[in-house]
Structure formats: structure tokens, C-alpha cells
Amino acid sequence: MKAAPxxxxxxxxxxxxxxxxxxxAHRRRTLPxxxxxxxxxxxxxxxxxxxxxxxxxxxxxxxEQAKAExxxxxVRVRADxxxxxLDSGQVSSPKDLANLQSEIASLNRRQADLEDVVxxxxxxxxxxxxDAARLTAERAEITAGLSTLEDKRxxxxxxxxxxxxxxxxxxxxxxxxxxxxxLALYEKLRGQYGVGAAMLHGGRCQGCKVSLSIADLxxxxxxxxxxxxxxxxxxxxxxxxxESGL
Length: 246
What we know:
The chain is mainly alpha-helical and 246 residues long. 76% of the residues lie in helices and 5% in strands.
């Protein structure tokens, strides 16, 4: 392949600019906010499940407490009714009187037991309410932090996109001065090796950092000034400059 030396030197400008674009792309992929956002989002998802579970427990306890309180009320009503019968003097038979007194005592014990159950449920409900409140507050805190991180991420991405856009604009100006076949070879090598062209500087390829042999340097010296050369080690386009050491 043949190309004017000036066109070949433009490959070095292009390679330098592509290196800038690669660094910008790497920074875009590795923004610290991205990992933090993923971590917080995962924690937020776990918290959402925990909040639902806590609210479900609280709902179950509320229903359990309501039922226990209803049972207490039912026993209390029955005991009050029997006590009124007893106090009214309507029961005259000693046997019926003894049975009524026994039933009232039994109901009072049942009421006391049920009231203990209500207190125990209320304690569990209080703990469940505190747990749900804690989880809800933690979720709100993480959500706020996540929003802040997303704002930082968006601002950083906007800056990187601006830099990348400007670099791509300059790239277009550089590629306009490179023959299509030379540019196609450069792009192919860039896709294979990450860098498509490198300077020969002081007898060393700046792409692979390998010093060329005397035979290779002699071959390069003998080559036409417009011949497109390749490094024998890394196969990148080797661009000659006054600093090549030839």
C-alpha cells in the first residue's frame, strides 16, 4: 500500500485522539457512581421485600389483636350479664346459685387469660411497628442517597459525552485527510490490536515498545517514502518521522 508521508503522519494524530476516546469510554464504563448505584439499588430491592414482610406481620398482628380484644369483650359481656343475674336475686335455687357463681369465676379467669394474650400481642405489635418504621426510614434514606448518586452519574456522563463529542468532531477533521484504503487498514488493525498505528521512534516501535533489528531498520531505510510499513512484531502501521532514528 502507498500513501503520502503526511497522510501517514495523520494516523499518529488519529491514534492519539482514539486513545483519548478509549479513555473516555473506559471512564464512562467505570464511573464509581455506577457501582454505588448498583449496590444501593440491590439494597433498596432487599429493603422493599423486608418492608412488605414487616407490614404483613403488622397487619397480621393487628387482626390477631382485634380478635383477642373481641374475645375479651365477649367474655366480659357474658360475665357482666351473669353478675347482674346474681346481684338481682333472681336465682334462688342453691344449686343454680352455685353454678352461676362458678361460671362467673370461670369467666373472670378466662377474661384475665385473654387480657394477658392481648397484652402479649400488643407487645409483639409494638416491636413490629418499630421494625417497620426502622425499615421504612432506612428505605427512605437509601432512596434519597440513590437519587443523589444518579444526579452525580448523570452530570458525569454529560461531561464525558461532551468531551467525547468534541473529540469525535476533531476526529472527523483528521480522517478527511487520510486515503480511504489507509484509513480502512488502520480501523481494521485498531479493532484487532486496540491501536492501529504507532510511531517509529529511535529505532523502536512505540506500539509494542520493541527495538527493531538492524535488518528491519535497513529494510525500512530502503523503502520508498510513501510505502506503508508494518511492524514485524505487533503488525501495526509503522509511521516514520524525523525522530525515527533512520
